[in-house]
């Protein structure tokens, strides 16, 4: 799965002011990624506000993204959740045209045991027509996929090819790297952790800030893959504050505010999220001057 090395970007879903999906803006966002050098795109991960989209909207967004990408860049689809049967149904009805893999968030709210998480992912991988990337984000799910469970899945379920790790635990990253099969991919799920994770052996990131700055994120990951951590640190440091602002009032509220400043899409998010405050927008404006200089 070399196509999953480097800078993946978890696309936002642009909305019109009336809350409907803005496909013109989505097309512009996709072009921004391709021109900026992103290595692959994730359609309808959690950054895409997937939980607030209807089944018909999800299907249309996936198809539209594949049509606009038109084979120019690999695509990953976000399909997961805390209802295993529903996730299996989505996989069975998913049109794989243009897509290379599935990113599947671990079950949230239910707080399953590690055995429950294992059986959930085993069922999903068995049903999936495409390779599966695990997505561990305890800050959102309130449930950690342990290093032991990740490695067990990597060794015992052939269709599971990697994990997007956003646990924030260097110890967990290290144990996955130590014990995983050689070809199993560790991918950063948290922008500020990309450089240290790649120093441990991760192959890249699935980024939020990359929506706005695909070239910077792509360059950072390329430098890390080349072992040039000195130059990568310069980009890492430059992106730290703007990344912090991206998440200050929830994701993707912050990055949509940045994209609006760039003329790529509007600021509209769906409830229960709300648009960025005036204070956050002012902070973003100040920081954009630093990032762009």
TrEMBL record:
<keyword id="KW-0457">Lysine biosynthesis</keyword>
<feature type="site" description="L-lysine inhibitor binding">
    <location>
        <position position="86"/>
    </location>
</feature>
<dbReference type="Pfam" id="PF00701">
    <property type="entry name" value="DHDPS"/>
</dbReference>
<keyword id="KW-0220">Diaminopimelate biosynthesis</keyword>
<keyword id="KW-0456">Lyase</keyword>
<dbReference type="GO" id="GO:0005829">
    <property type="term" value="C:cytosol"/>
</dbReference>
<feature type="site" description="L-lysine inhibitor binding">
    <location>
        <position position="82"/>
    </location>
</feature>
<dbReference type="InterPro" id="IPR002220">
    <property type="entry name" value="DapA-like"/>
</dbReference>
<comment type="pathway">
    <text>Amino-acid biosynthesis; L-lysine biosynthesis via DAP pathway; (S)-tetrahydrodipicolinate from L-aspartate: step 3/4.</text>
</comment>
<feature type="site" description="Part of a proton relay during catalysis">
    <location>
        <position position="46"/>
    </location>
</feature>
<dbReference type="GO" id="GO:0019877">
    <property type="term" value="P:diaminopimelate biosynthetic process"/>
</dbReference>
<feature type="site" description="L-lysine inhibitor binding">
    <location>
        <position position="108"/>
    </location>
</feature>
<comment type="function">
    <text>Catalyzes the condensation of (S)-aspartate-beta-semialdehyde [(S)-ASA] and pyruvate to 4-hydroxy-tetrahydrodipicolinate (HTPA).</text>
</comment>
<feature type="binding site">
    <location>
        <position position="206"/>
    </location>
    <ligand>
        <name>pyruvate</name>
    </ligand>
</feature>
<dbReference type="GO" id="GO:0009089">
    <property type="term" value="P:lysine biosynthetic process via diaminopimelate"/>
</dbReference>
<comment type="subunit">
    <text>Homotetramer; dimer of dimers.</text>
</comment>
<feature type="active site" description="Proton donor/acceptor">
    <location>
        <position position="135"/>
    </location>
</feature>
<feature type="site" description="Part of a proton relay during catalysis">
    <location>
        <position position="109"/>
    </location>
</feature>
<keyword id="KW-0028">Amino-acid biosynthesis</keyword>
<feature type="site" description="L-lysine inhibitor binding; via carbonyl oxygen">
    <location>
        <position position="51"/>
    </location>
</feature>
<dbReference type="InterPro" id="IPR013785">
    <property type="entry name" value="Aldolase_TIM"/>
</dbReference>
<feature type="active site" description="Schiff-base intermediate with substrate">
    <location>
        <position position="164"/>
    </location>
</feature>
<dbReference type="GO" id="GO:0008840">
    <property type="term" value="F:4-hydroxy-tetrahydrodipicolinate synthase activity"/>
</dbReference>
<keyword id="KW-0963">Cytoplasm</keyword>
<keyword id="KW-0704">Schiff base</keyword>
<dbReference type="InterPro" id="IPR005263">
    <property type="entry name" value="DapA"/>
</dbReference>
<feature type="binding site">
    <location>
        <position position="47"/>
    </location>
    <ligand>
        <name>pyruvate</name>
    </ligand>
</feature>
<protein>
    <recommendedName>
        <fullName>4-hydroxy-tetrahydrodipicolinate synthase</fullName>
        <ecNumber>4.3.3.7</ecNumber>
    </recommendedName>
</protein>
<comment type="similarity">
    <text>Belongs to the DapA family.</text>
</comment>
